[in-house]
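The authors assume throughout that readers already know how a fold can be written as discrete tokens. A single example would do more here than another paragraph of explanation. An entry of this sort, consisting of the sequence and the corresponding backbone structure tokens, reads as follows:
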Amino acid sequence: MSERDVNETSCIPGYVCYGSDWDISSSISTPNNRSVVRCRNDEKTFCVRPANEDICSDLTVTFTPGECRGSSFNFTKSISVDFLNSSEIQQIKPTGLPAEITTTLPDLPKCKNLSVSYTCSENNKADVKLSELQPFTDYSCTGLILQNSISINKTTPSVHVRVDCDLTITNIKKDLTSTSIELSWNSTSKNCQQVLPLLHKLSYDCSCDGQTGKATGPDGRTCVITGLNPFTGYTCRVRAKYNEIQVSTGGEVKLQTKVGTPAAVTELKLHVHEHNTIKVSWHRPSTFNGPEGKYIIRLNTADDKEVTKKELAGTKYEVEFKDLSYSTSYKVKVTAHNGHYESDPQISEISTLYNNKAVIGFRVFLFIVIVLAFLFLTYKFYIQKFRTSTNDVNDDMELEASE
């Protein structure tokens, strides 16, 4: 058997194969006892698998015929990077952004300047670079193996890549009024901090117990929630969304709005008692919009000059103004006060009655005068009658004496 009886052929990818009409199974020898396998499709073809140390160098296979069959001869094959077994390439998926796939090629001591350039696709859309990957998105990435920055037309196995950024809402600042809460915050991410300003699909929602606000500001991290009740506790939340899907943790704070103006008292009623006493009653306001405080009741004249005022605890709802002027118009104003602000007044007017005691005294006096006058007239009448009777007697006596 000679060199002309052996031919290089193809049978198994990644192997160097030789075929012959002679039985060469026992004639092949390889460096460092590389394994030799028979081709499944041709029993007269045998294949040698180059080791990683053979890549980028020459592989020499020696054929040694048996006795009387000739002398030994060699076949030398230049083993290129094409013989690299891609299944041996280790690929570590990225866990953050900007994305990087850590690729470990087999130890190829004789190969220089090998690298891998990846491209990725989302649902068979246009390819993008690793540096262009977006978070919370599924990609299929394939690496093109390069030597001296030139493709060797060999790729890595496809790898699934998805990076979920661990977004956390921190450092929530607040500015409170009696009816609104303004929130501002920071967003942090252990694995995506560098790209946060570049994520155009990243947005924020904020709410306080059902009342929502719109994130504003140059970076979208400020929010104002309006329509709140004064002096009320709220649980406020800030949530980051990517492509309208919630993706953050944290961002919850308990707050209380500031004190506001109390609501006005209701059902103000005035009654005159004992002719010169005014009784005032009312119902508590719907809310004090702050700590429950007191009521201020002002008594003014009809032309709005203050006569006096009283203050009552927030648990009392009636008061009296005594010893007022008779037959006088008064104006009563009642307000609620929570220690900070005073409500709008509820106002009502009423007039005291005449001085009934003076009228009774006058009537008694008049009665006495009438009685005295009657007695005097009666007395005068009897005196006059007595005098007339006496005169008549005297006249009779004088007539008798003259006769």
Q: What stands out?
A: DSSP finds one helix and 30 strands in the chain. The mean pLDDT is 89. Residues 356-402 form the longest helix (47 residues).
